Amino acid sequence: MNVLLTGGAGYIGSHVVRALQEAGHNCAVYDSLVTGHASAVEAELIVADVANADALGAAMKDYSIDAVIHLAAFIEAGESVEKPDKYFRNNTIIALTLLDAMRSAGVGRLVFSSTAAVYGTPERVPIEEDARLEPINPYGASKLCVEYMLRAYAGAFGMGFVSLRYFNVAGADPAGDIGEDHDPETHLIPLILQVPLGSRRRISSRCAACRAAPGG
Predict the structure, then answer these.
(1) Average per-residue pLDDT in the chain?
(2) Chain segment 32-90, per-residue pLDDT in tens
(3) Which are the contacts of 206, defined by CB distance < 8 A and separation ≥ 6?
(4) Which of 5, 156, 185, 190 is 20 to 30 A (C-alpha) from 62?
């Protein structure tokens, strides 16, 4: 298959590209590089914003795209409370632009990078997939809005989709040449690991990453 990855120059995206190529698929990465890294891209790179419908359409046509993996988003839950407009505009509204570009190009399959933040504070742990959806910050709400959009588009236009609700993603490729690369680091697992490594004295529930985690 020919797969377009929006946000494919990011942490998760760079690993997904490698896995897809190892499975025999062709990848094209579509990324604005606002937070992504061109050096992590091991495929064709299109530097453009998902808000640019014309660029999206051209990419889907030029690379004969069969499916899209939508990873592009702002991801800091704490920041989303202070700047909800930024998150709903970038995470939710541009997803609508992407869906319409896919319809125009005849691309009917999408994998959406959602978040466990759509669950909010869980009633019980471990969280089951069908648990109540009640996000407690604009980041989670912006992602849940896209999930509702996907259901509507699937019902109205026959689009096939799957939403992946990640918790705390961590780790690196076994080769050790790609991994997390955030500056400053705000993700929970890397922050925890900084303590035994000696680069951080301690970590507490008051840190932004802990507050961002479901139930944190």
Answers:
(1) 89
(2) 999 888 998 999 999 999 999 999 999 999 999 999 999 999 998 999 999 999 999 99
(3) none
(4) 156
- With contact defined as beta carbons under 8 Å apart, do 98 and 112 qualify? no
What are the C-alpha distances in Å from 130 to residues 118, 119, 134, 147, 153?
A: 11, 9, 12, 14, 21
**pTM of this prediction?**
0.86
Domain range for residue 142? 2-168
Contact 160, 109 (CB under 8 A): yes
Inter-CA distances, 106 with 2, 60, 99, 158, Å: 13, 9, 10, 11
Catalytic annotation, residues: 139
Residue 48 within any structural domain of the chain:
yes
How distant, in Å, are the alpha carbons of 95, 99, 124, 147, 181 from that of 70? 8, 10, 29, 12, 20
CA end-to-end span of the chain: 39
Look up residue 89 and give its DSSP letter. Answer: I
CB 48, CB 89: distance < 8 Å = no
CATH number of the domain residue 22 falls in? 3.40.50.720
Q: Which of 90, 75, 86, 80 is nearest to 187 (CA)?
A: 75
- Lowest-confidence range among 6-15, 91-100, 165-174? 165-174
